[in-house]
Amino acid sequence: MNPTKTRCLIIGSGPAGYTAAIYASRANMNPILYEGMQRGGQLTITSMVDNFPGYPEGRMGGDIMEDIRQQALRFGAEIREGEILSVDFSKRPFRCTADDGTQIEAETVIIATGASARWLGLPSEKEYNGSGVSTCATCDGFFYKGKDVAVIGGGDTAAEDATYLAGLCRKVYMVHRRDQLRASQFMQEKVFATNNIEMVWNHIPLEILGEGDKFSKSVTGLRLQNVQTKAEQTLAVDGVFVAIGHHPNTELFEGQLELDEEKYIVTQPGTSKTSVPGVFAAGDVQDRQYKQAITAAAGGCRAAIDAERFLKQC
Ligand code: NDP
């Protein structure tokens, strides 16, 4: 099978990928975008987004992503379902292979593979994953209607998850390892103003407790330790939502691009240029600092402009 040739391959479909597709299409680069496993990225698993410009009343994250996707399609971007499984950045055109075996020869590549939720690393977390343990409140919250749950973390994701779950559950314990939230002031105020959220400060999870066998399991509690006194306590909960941040999705690029010690793609300051000329990165995959939908979208714009300029110089 002959490889598909493109001037610009975009890997990933969050705000960065779709925005790159809008700009690359309008620059006549005829981009092909692979959406990956989670079409639309992390925004599709959040609830209401109130801080994306252009939506004065707020809009559901999934709807924002569909809006940007439709905008990219309007300018002719080719958007494909599926994943890129391997890349070869050793020479141009770059050779990439999709999960259906399609070979792609790309003159430029924009990486927008985003980030994935981090796990605590407890063996019990693995054991009950999908049976009472989750990293996605909007996906799984429904199953805990009228029940008691715990959210682990003190950032914006944990605060959003806790307030979302408080609308469904009887009680939400928000368990944080310090005595101060990292979340934005707005989200903190929302958490503190919600009657059925109880803060559990200065505690770390030791074990997720549960019952059942491999066919049917459920969570019954969460064993915690006070980081100062070392005293332990158990919360009786039916679900545990882990919201302790994200790690960049860069496994595919290890050994091909320069990554930092936390595996984020290193870009030249003020640009989307990676260590390989012709390969650009945008959004959470290279952003340790801001990690907002709007900064990811801006990064996608920047990457498409950098790719266009690169092609003009070739
Ligand atoms: P953050 O990195 O901001 O927060 C992670 C939280 O988890 C911190 O409170 C951290 O504690 C805690 N934590 C980390 N590791 C552990 C561990 N092993 N055990 C216990 N607790 C742990 O991640 P978020 O996903 O919340 O947010 C990522 C970015 O996305 C941020 O920039 C945020 O502003 C943004 N965001 C924006 C939203 C919006 O604007 N609508 C919504 C959601 C996210 P500690 O504080 O002690 O480090």
Describe the protein's architecture and organization.
The protein has helices spanning 15-26, 61-74, 123-127, 137-140, 156-166, 185-192, 293-313; strands spanning 4-11, 32-34, 48-49, 59-60, 78-80, 84-88, 94-98, 103-111, 115-117, 133-134, 148-152, 171-175, 197-200, 203-212, 217-226, 232-235, 239-242, 246-248, 279-281. The chain is an alpha/beta fold and 314 residues long. It folds into two domains: 4-116 and 246-313, FAD/NAD(P)-binding domain (3-Layer(bba) Sandwich); 119-242, FAD/NAD(P)-binding domain, CATH 3.50.50.60. The two termini are 27 Å apart. The site of NADPH dihydro-nicotinamide-adenine-dinucleotide phosphate has 20 residues, from helix 5. NADPH dihydro-nicotinamide-adenine-dinucleotide phosphate (NDP) binds at residues 49, 51, 120, 152-158, 160, 177-178, 182, 204, 244-246, 291-292.
The tally of strands reads 19
**Quaternary state of the chains:** single chain
Tell me, briefly, the overall form.
Answer: elongated
Average pLDDT: 96
Number of domains: 2
CATH superfamily of the largest domain: FAD/NAD(P)-binding domain
Residues in helix, %: 10-25%
**Percent of residues in beta strands:** 25-35%
CATH architecture of the largest domain: 3-Layer(bba) Sandwich
Distance between the termini: 27 Å
What can be said about the biggest beta sheet?
7 strands, mixed
Low-confidence stretches: none
What is the H/E string? EHEEEHEEEEEHEHEHEHEEEEEEEH
